Amino acid sequence: MNILDLEFVKGFIRMCNDGFNQGWHERNGGNLTYRIKEEDLKDVRDLLNTDGEWLEIGTEVPSLANEHFLVTGSGKYFRNVILDPESNIAIILIDETGTKYQIQWGLKDGGKPTSELPSHLMNHAVKKEVSGGKHRVIYHAHTTNTIALTFVLPLDDQVFTRELWESATECPVVFPDGVGVVGWMVPGGRAIAEKTAELMEKYDVAIWAHHGMFAAGFDFDLTFGLMHTAEKSAEILVKMLSMRPDKLQTITPDDFRHLAKDFNVTLPEEFLYEK
Question: Which pTM value belongs to this model?
Answer without folding.
Answer: 0.95
